[in-house]
């Protein structure tokens, strides 16, 4: 859209806001309260929403978010909870492009309404959106973790276990990065145990046990050995996996304080299954505990 057309949409939106405000004022006058106060509020809601959509077309995200917020508050006054929550979500999505903190405030307002209505699955979805804003925009990993945990709780309550596990895996990944290894290990073990008997998911179980073992390994080599034995006993298919074989080689190299053997084992594994950033970070942390490792590299 060219600048002139965008400017026209903005002007139309500003006029609509002025009209909406007049309707709100009219609904508040004493006599109007008896005669059609609600009708005026409903008209104002519609105008705020139309203005918000015009601001969106003009890419004025803050103004769009603000107009959706006004509509949301009026819907609440009119006892239209569902419409109010929808407008708060629309406001949040608009603010995401301009003001991440304001987006979070609007999404939290929507979550309050949804939980009040018993709509926990949709509340969980918005907690995930907030977590993602904390991850990418505001870079506050502790807060992202808290929202993923809340989403997981709501999903569990609604028996949506696979959605809950997706959130918990995010929590475990971040917890390990923040050196909260016990928390990470517990989640990886729990999800590994719950997926190993499911024919559709058991191929993923080896990844979870692998990650749990790495978290143990960073803290204590003996713990890692014991954990590995436990996982093999619980889940015999793990023994034949490349992940289990790699762990055994790494434990051996660590015991012998042999940096070259450690690096070689990682290199060989990586040549067949590419290591992602998280695994690389964890493997480097373990490698640094081998004496004589000064280069701090894996390959």
UniProtKB/TrEMBL annotation:
Q: Which Pfam families match?
A: SNAP
Leader peptide range in chain numbering: none
Q: What is its main location?
A: membrane
> What are the recorded GO MF terms, alphabetically?
soluble NSF attachment protein activity; syntaxin binding
| Membrane disposition | Peripheral membrane protein
- Intracellular or extracellular location(s): Membrane
Q: Which GO terms describe its biological process?
A: intracellular protein transport; regulation of synaptic vesicle priming; SNARE complex disassembly; synaptic transmission, glutamatergic
Q: Which UniProt keywords apply?
A: ER-Golgi transport, Membrane, Protein transport, Transport
Q: Name one GO cellular component term.
A: synaptobrevin 2-SNAP-25-syntaxin-1a complex
Q: Does the keyword Zinc apply?
A: no
Q: What does this protein do?
A: Required for vesicular transport between the endoplasmic reticulum and the Golgi apparatus.
Protein family (similarity comment): Belongs to the SNAP family.
Q: What is this protein called?
A: Beta-soluble NSF attachment protein isoform X1
Natural source organism: Python bivittatus (Burmese python)
Q: What is the lineage of its organism?
A: Eukaryota, Metazoa, Chordata, Craniata, Vertebrata
What gene name does this entry carry? NAPB
């Amino acid at each position: 859209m060219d600048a002139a057309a965008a400017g026209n949409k903005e002007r139309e939106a500003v006029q609509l806001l002025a009209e909406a405000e007049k309707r709100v004022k009219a609904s508040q006058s004493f006599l109007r309260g008896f005669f059609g106060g609600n009708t005026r509020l409903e008209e104002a809601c519609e105008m705020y929403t139309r203005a918000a959509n015009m601001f969106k077309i003009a890419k004025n995200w803050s103004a769009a978010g603000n107009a959706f917020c006004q509509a949301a508050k009026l819907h609440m006054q009119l006892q239209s909870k569902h419409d109010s929550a929808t407008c708060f979500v629309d406001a949040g999505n608009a603010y995401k492009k301009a003001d991440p903190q304001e987006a979070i405030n609007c999404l939290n307002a929507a979550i309050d309404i949804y939980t009040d209505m018993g709509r926990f699955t949709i509340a969980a979805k918005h907690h995930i959106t907030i977590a993602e804003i904390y991850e990418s925009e505001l870079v506050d990993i502790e807060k992202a973790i808290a929202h993923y945990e809340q989403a997981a709780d709501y999903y569990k309550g609604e028996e949506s276990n696979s959605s809950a596990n997706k959130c918990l895996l995010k929590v475990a990944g971040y917890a390990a990065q923040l050196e909260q290894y016990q928390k990470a290990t517990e989640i990886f073990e729990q999800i590994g145990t719950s997926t190993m008997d499911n024919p559709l998911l058991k191929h993923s179980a080896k990844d979870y046990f692998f990650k749990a073992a790495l978290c143990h390994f960073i803290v204590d080599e003996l713990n890692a050995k014991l954990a590995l034995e436990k996982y093999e006993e619980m889940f015999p298919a793990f023994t034949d996996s490349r992940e289990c074989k790699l762990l055994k080689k790494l434990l051996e190299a660590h015991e012998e304080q042999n940096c070259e053997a450690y690096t070689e084992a990682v290199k060989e594994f990586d040549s067949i299954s590419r290591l992602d950033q998280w695994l690389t970070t964890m493997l480097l942390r373990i490698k640094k505990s081998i004496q004589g490792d000064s280069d701090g590299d894996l390959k």
